[in-house]
């Protein structure tokens, strides 16, 4: 474990510590994710964009956007994408890489207190970020607030494999294979210990669906990706609901 605890978040998810952890890994974040996911991160990104079904001219909020890789993929459809993240390091790296990409803007933002007006976006998406929010339920309510009535929510997040055999292999990978690889390829390998802890503590697919409904979303559904290692949750904002 790193002796510099300020760069290693824990399950209390203190915003300053989580943000600092992501600041430190920003430069190599996308490469590390591709290696640790054995390339599946690209497939998950495609599935998320398809579920979002963006159209030209729509305004879409991509929360926990990191360096903006997912935002750029969405913007290729002609949508206007706001890439929001609470890590200044991630935002800076995203702006450095994608400053010239049309339709993408970067904003530093806390998911529990979004700096946007009510009903500003046609859709909101968050990939592998909701479990890092200190109060995920408050975040879900904020996403509802800034979404237009009838607008969509798409959440891509690590989840729980439904097969005991797959779950066992997944735990073995996370506990014994991922940590040494993370220390080899990442600038802060200890940060990936937090990754394991946060995945284990994260609710399963039906439980998360219930929390999404409790936040005010309707038409909640999910489908598993990679045998349930990841789940894609979808929902809509009720028409006529201001989300307050």
UniProtKB/TrEMBL annotation:
S-adenosyl-L-methionine binds at residues 67, 85, 110-111, 127. Gene3D superfamilies: Vaccinia Virus protein VP39. GO terms for biological process: menaquinone biosynthetic process; methylation. Keywords: Menaquinone biosynthesis, Methyltransferase, S-adenosyl-L-methionine, Transferase. PROSITE patterns: SAM_MT_UBIE (PS51608), UBIE_1 (PS01183), UBIE_2 (PS01184). Pfam families: Ubie_methyltran. Pathway: Quinol/quinone metabolism; menaquinone biosynthesis; menaquinol from 1,4-dihydroxy-2-naphthoate: step 2/2. The keyword Cell cycle does not apply. HAMAP family: MenG_UbiE_methyltr. This is Demethylmenaquinone methyltransferase. The gene is menG.
